[in-house]
Amino acid sequence: MASGLTVVVDGQPVALDDCGWIQRRPCGCIVSALVAVSGDRVVATAQQAHEHLNHGKRERAAAEREGITVDTTELITMRHYREHIGANWECAWHAKRKKANA
Side-chain half-sphere of 91: how many Cα atoms within 13 Å? Predict the structure, then answer.
């Protein structure tokens, strides 16, 4: 069932159902991802996403100590995810380092 909600991503209106939330470390690496709408669950704000991805006060506090906060939680379109991110969750620095160590 569609949520009927519309958001603005990169200056364009998009159905929330076609979006997802990602959380990044301060370096840029993605640490978690979440579709914005799944069944009856609707995650419409960065705060809701942060709380869903980091259950409980202790887990949120631990994430925040690592620099993973509401401010590092971003809404993206699933199209952007498929075309630009996919399995590439590492930031440029970590990806380069990983490749050098392979």
Answer: 10
pLDDT digits 0-9 by tens, 26-43? 999 999 999 999 999 999
Q: For the whole model, what pTM was predicted?
A: 0.88
Contact partners, residue 35, CB within 8 Å, separation at least 6? 19, 20, 78
Question: Do the Cβ atoms of 54 and 61 come closer than 8 Å?
Answer: no
**Can you spell out the DSSP letters for 89-101?**
-S-HHHHHHHHHH
Cα 45 to Cα 49, 51, 58, 76, distances in angstroms: 6, 10, 21, 12
* 48 phi, psi to nearest 5 deg: -60, -40
Q: How far apart are the first and last CA of the chain?
A: 44
